[in-house]
């Protein structure tokens, strides 16, 4: 059986090799982002996700983005990290749907604080301001509740609400 870290690594590689209009892939680099950056980022988060079952999701997300920043200087994987961290946290002996539901419903305000820190560190483009639980403020709600506030405008947030 493949380890969760290796599975996450492979998921990142497969996602980065898909040709998507307007995105980096193996045949198209950007000035500030290359296919190699995506591969380096995948390798950087592998050991972090390997240990995701032993840590809160927020810690895992922040550790992944910190590890990524050790190898690249741009946002290469915030979205996929936000998706993989809860999945990687599910106990090996638990069925994925039930385990993921448990992970998502037990997220805390501390998870939100750590995820906000990770988002600020990743510095994705296109973020505006919102009246409640803005990224520039200290979050006070559990992460799933905050994701519910953003679900109408963000596909990753929507996954946290609909159980992936």
Describe the structure.
The structure is a single chain. The chain has 164 residues and is mainly alpha-helical. The protein has one domain (4-162). It has helices at 4-17, 35-50, 57-69, 78-89, 96-105, 109-122, 143-150, 155-162. It is globular. The model has no long low-confidence stretch (mean pLDDT 94).
Give the helices and strands, then pairings.
Layout: H1 4-17, H2 35-50, H3 57-69, H4 78-89, H5 96-105, H6 109-122, H7 143-150, H8 155-162
Helix pairs in contact: 1-2, 2-3, 3-4, 3-6, 7-8
Features:
mainly alpha, 164 residues
What's the helix count? 8
How would you sum up the major sheet? none
Percent strand: under 5%
Q: Strand-and-helix sequence, N→C?
A: HHHHHHHH
Alpha-beta classification: mainly alpha
Gap from first CA to last CA: 23 Å
Tell me the count of domains.
1
- Alpha-carbon Rg, integer: 15 Å
Mean pLDDT: 94
Stretches with pLDDT under 50, minimum 5 residues: none
Overall geometry comes to globular
- Per DSSP E runs of 2 or more residues, the count of β-strands stands at 0
Residue share in helix: 55-70%
């Amino acid at each position: 059986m493949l380890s969760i870290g290796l599975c996450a690594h492979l998921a990142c590689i497969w996602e980065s090799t898909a040709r998507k209009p307007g995105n980096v892939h193996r045949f198209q680099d950007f000035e500030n982002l290359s296919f190699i950056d995506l591969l380096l980022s995948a390798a950087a988060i592998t050991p972090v996700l390997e240990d995701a079952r032993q840590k809160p999701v927020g810690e895992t997300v922040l550790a992944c983005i910190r590890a990524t920043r050790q190898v690249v200087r741009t946002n290469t994987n915030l979205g996929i990290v936000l998706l993989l961290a809860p999945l990687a946290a599910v106990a090996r002996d638990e069925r994925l749907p039930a385990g993921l539901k448990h992970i998502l419903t037990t997220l805390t305000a501390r998870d939100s604080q750590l995820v906000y820190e990770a988002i600020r560190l990743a510095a994705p483009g296109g973020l505006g301001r919102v009246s409640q639980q803005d990224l520039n403020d200290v979050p006070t709600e559990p992460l799933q509740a905050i994701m519910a506030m953003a679900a109408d405008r963000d596909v990753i947030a929507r996954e946290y609400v609909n159980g992936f």
